[in-house]
Amino acid sequence: MRTVQDRYAFVGVALPLSVLVAAGALFFGGGSSGSALPWLTLAVVVTLVVLVVREGVPAGLWKVAPIVLLGVWSALSITWSVDPARTWTYANRSLLYAAVALLGMYLAGQERRVAYALAGLLGAVCVWALAGKVFAGLVPDYARVARLREPVGYWNGLALAADIALPLALWVARSRRLLGMALAFGWLVALALTYSRGGVAIALVVLVLYAALGGGWWFTISTLLPAAIPAGVVVALAFVLPGVTSDGQTSHTRARDGALFGLVLVVGLIATIALARLRLASPGARIRGAAAIGGVVLAVAAAGVVVTHAGGWWSSFTSTQVTEVGNGGSRFGDTSSNHRYAWWTQAFDAWQEHPVVGTGAGTFAVTNLRYRTSYLDQAVEPHNLPVQFLSETGIVGAALVLLTALFFHVGIGARRDGVKLALGLALPAFALHALVDIDWDFVALCVPIHLIAGMLAASPTRRRVGGGAALAVGGVALLLSLSAFSVWLGDRYAGRASEALGTPAHAISLARTARSFDPLSIDPILTQAVAAWSGGQNDLARSYYLAAVDVQPHSAEAWYRLGWFDLHVRHCPRAALPELDRFTALDPQNRNNVEYDAALALVNSGTPGC
Fold first, then answer.
1. Under a CB-based contact definition with an 8 Å cutoff, are residues 168 and 119 in contact?
2. Exposed end of the chain (fewer CB within 10 Å): N or C?
3. Distance, CA of 42 to CA of 115 (rounded, Å)
4. Distance between CA 488 and CA 158 in Å, rounded?
5. In this structure, what DSSP letter does residue 142 have?
6. To which H or E segment does residue 461 belong?
7. How far is CA 29 from CA 34, 36, 86, 149, 153, in A?
8. What is the CB neighbour count within 10 angstroms for residue 248?
9. Running DSSP on this structure, what letter comes out for residue 373?
10. Alpha helical stretches, state H, 410-466
11. What does pTM read for this prediction?
């Protein structure tokens, strides 16, 4: 029989493995693509199987039941989805997050180590993010759009990482003041350079919550100010360097201004360290009273501004203007939702048609094409997680999302021991941010969030399981891994098939392999059609186009490709007309709707040719 010390020594393996998983997600998450899903899934489920077999299952499993059921429900929605291929990927994503939450439960009791590890990882993310501005060749795409976004791959996502990091920086500063303030300084600069309005607002919320729930007002203010003042100066100087903060800059400008920005960053960090050595005395009763009065005055003034401008702000927020909000610093004063309100309305319209089960997980792209009001108003997610799951998975899915949030957030206000508070504030930060963005699409954000959620929901208690239960866990793990890798392999072979179109027979063969791994995707079918057509096999090509609309009858692209082929290759407008009509119904704002007009004109001419 193993000793208690042996038992907990083995449990410690969960921490380094979890840190590796979080690091992989943060640095190699692949943005919103699913490229990292199979590898992360494999790493998580293998770790879980080993922990279950050796240590049993953690107490409090009921707290992760809603997210597990959400993943299962998302998988079931494949059967009625309007885009089953994307639903499969989305189900894999949700099931990964459920598995990560389960893994997090094995970290219960190790909150301090997890906090230090996560603070270190986020510090590395911050360094990498800012280095992309200092060294012009590190992120070439900054020449096109300057908003800070790597390594997460999305500016608003990087801003959410800042919102998670700042309370941790304050907690670290309690015992390691210089390190904590350096982390705060770096993330304040990075947050500003993302130009994320929501990220800045949520940062203010979590910092207020940290101070109010146990961090202490004076400690929070006296720790942030020495970091915020140099960070503000660095950001101000960054905005006068076009190579750092302006779009469309040359490599020479970016290299020159990046070097200057790097120098300013170093000076700002030195200033932060110098200021950190100054210990501000706690204010007396009179100063605290004056501060309280000043706070009330500011609150009243802010309320007056809100009341005065609420109508105009709401009008701007709900506007259906087709122009995008600019990427410069001026966006901080813009109250437009940047199409979000329109997307929420579209998602709600789709939900009304399928209120119980929705259109299938991850299928808003189809909804958006059908309901959008302009050619530019296009998105793959409605930028609001509860609304998204309501539209895509119906009342059932939305209820599971709310239960997940409820179970994970219970007790955050009671976590006043410092480390649990700093970690726990990542959850409301994520919840608030998910009301206006697409965080579920980014493993870089959701993996650390669900690790934290699982850890805070559990206790160190374990319950042994029998051999049959362990075998069942292994079977589920194998199934999840196969599911994730099947989609990934299908995507890889589909990409190779597209690249091989110069040799039609080889392209068709590769696409056939892609379809064997992912029979729900139409990409390899469309590649087969193009390959057959280029090889002079028009009848075979049309059979592939027909197969595509059979697999995904709600795909506007599949109907357009079939209609275009019948109109321009087979010269048969009578066949093309209903196909292009279906295309226009699925995507009424698409500029290619002129093909329908051309087919209709030929049919009405009396000499359609077919």
1. yes
2. N
3. 24
4. 25
5. G
6. strand 459-463
7. 8, 5, 18, 13, 9
8. 10
9. S
10. 419-424, 426-433, 443-457
11. 0.90
Residue 513, Cβ density class (10 Å: 0-12 exposed, 13-18 middle, ≥19 buried): middle
For residue 509, give the amino acid letter: S
Amino acid, single-letter form, for residue 167: P
Q: Output the pLDDT for position 7.
A: 43
Classify burial at 525, counting beta carbons within 10 Å of its beta carbon; exposed 0-12, middle 13-18, buried 19 or more: buried
In angstroms, what CA-CA distances link 132 with 244, 255, 272, 502, 512?
10, 11, 22, 37, 40
C-alpha torsion 222→225→230→236, nearest 10: 180
What does the angle CA 483 – CA 75 – CA 93 come to, to the nearest 5 degrees?
60
The token duo for 107 is 């970290």
User: How many residues are listed for the chain in this entry?
Assistant: 610
Tokens coding 426: 């990542």
Q: Are 244 and 146 in contact (CB under 8 A)?
A: yes
Residue 438 has which token pair?
């697409």
Helix 84-105 crosses helix 14-28 at what angle (to 10 degrees)?
Answer: 140
565 contacts: CB under 8 Å, gap ≥ 6: 529, 533, 541, 542, 545
Tokens at 203, concatenated = 């940062």
Q: Do the Cβ atoms of 528 and 512 come closer than 8 Å? A: yes
Q: How far apart are CA 20 and CA 13, in angstroms?
A: 11
Give which of 450, 383, 312, 1 is closest to 154, Cα–Cα.
Answer: 383
Give the amino acid at 261: F
Please provide the DSSP assignment of 293-349 as one string.
HHHHHHHHHHHHHHHHHHHHHHHHHT---SSPPPSSGGGGG----TTHHHHHHHHHH
Contact yes or no for 444/162 (Cβ under 8 A): no
Tell me the Cα Rg of the chain: 27
**DSSP-derived 3-state class of residue 381:** coil
Give the 3-state secondary structure of residue 224. Answer: helix
pLDDT score of 318: 66
Summarize pLDDT for 33-74 with one digit per residue, the tens.
Answer: 889 999 999 999 999 999 988 888 888 888 899 999 999 999
Question: Is 442's pLDDT higher than 70?
Answer: yes
**Alpha carbons 129 and 273: distance in angstroms, whole number:** 21
How far apart, in whole angstroms, are the C-alpha atoms of residue 70 and residue 203? 28
Q: What does the angle CA 112 – CA 277 – CA 226 come to, to the nearest 5 degrees?
A: 80
Tell me how far CA of residue 114 lies from CA of 29, 92, 106, 397, in angstroms. 20, 26, 11, 31
CB contact at 8 A, 25 and 36: yes
**What HEC string does 150-175 produce?**
CCCCCHHHHHHHHHHHHHHHHHHHHH
Residue 358 tokens read as: 């929705």
First to last CA, the chain: 82
**Which stretches of 348-483 are assigned E, i.e. beta strand?**
459-463
Residue 128 and residue 151: Cα distance in Å, rounded?
7
Structure token digits, residue 111: 């909150």
